[in-house]
Amino acid sequence: MYSFDLVRPTSMEDAVAALGQEDSQPLSGGQTLIPTLKQRLAMPSTLVSLSAIAELKGVSVDGNTLTIGGGTTHAEVAAEAGAYPGLAALAGQIGDPAVRNRGTIGGSLANNDPSACYPAAALGSGATIVTNTREVAADDYFQGMFATALEENEIVTAVKFPIPEKAAYIKFQQPASRFALVGVFVSKGADGVRVAVTGASNDGVFRWSEAEEALNGNFAADAVEALSAPSGADMISDLHGSGDYRAHLVKVMTKRAVAKANG
C-alpha cells in the first residue's frame, strides 16, 4: 500500500471540496477500495472518507418509495428496510457479517462490480440513484462492467426504490467470496415486471426482457419454462463456470425468484 492522506469531512459541501483536490478518491465502506490499495493497484494521494456525513445514512419511507442513504451499510438495510422485504433479504445475503457492517449501498453501486447484488436490486426495482448533483434512473445508470453514469467526484447520496407489489432475489453464490455466480432480482409493480440479472454477463448487470414479457402475461415460474436461456456467448466464462452454465443458471434462478416472490 502506498502512503496517502486521509480526510474525514462531516458535510457534503466539505466532501465535494476535498474531492476537488488532485489525486483524491472517495472512501465509503472500503470493501473494494482497501484491498485494491493493499495490492498497490491504486495510489490516490488523498482518501476522502464519507463515513462521518450523517445525511448519507438512514432508511426512510414516503408513500410508496423507500429511500436509502448512500452511506447506509448492508446490515442497516437488512434490519431497517422492512417496507421492502425483497430488498432487505438481499442485503442480508451480501458477504459475511464483517462485510455487511462496513460495506455501503452507495459504495456498491458506485463500484458496480459485475457480480454484486445491489445493482440487480436497483435495476430490477426501477430505482433512482441520487447524487450530489442530480438523479439518474437505474436504466441509465449502469453502463457496463464496473462502469456507471457517475462523473468525476460525483457521490451517490441516496437510492430511491419504488416499493413493488411482489419482489424477490435469488442468487447462486460463489462460496468463497459470496458474490453471485448468477443472481436474479424480480419485481412486479404498477409499471409491470422487471427481471435483472447480476454475476452472469460480460456487460455487467442487465434486464432479461424476454422473461419480463412472459411474466407480464403470467407472473408464475411456469411462464419462464418455455423461454430459451440467454446466449452463453455473452456470459462470463471462468474457473467457476462456463458461459453456457451461467446462461442456464439465469433461467433457473429466474424461476426460483418468481416462485419466492409469489410466496
Automatic annotation (TrEMBL):
Residues 1-166 form the FAD-binding PCMH-type domain. It is an enzyme of class 1 (oxidoreductase). Keywords: FAD, Flavoprotein, Oxidoreductase. Its EC number is 1.2.7.4. SUPFAM superfamilies: CO dehydrogenase flavoprotein C-terminal domain-like (SSF55447), FAD-binding/transporter-associated domain-like (SSF56176). This is Carbon-monoxide dehydrogenase medium subunit. GO terms for molecular function: anaerobic carbon-monoxide dehydrogenase activity; FAD binding. InterPro entries: CO_DH_flav_C, CO_DH_flav_C_dom_sf, Diverse_Substr_Oxidored, FAD-bd_PCMH, FAD-bd_PCMH-like_sf, FAD-bd_PCMH_sub1, FAD-bd_PCMH_sub2, Mopterin_DH_FAD-bd.
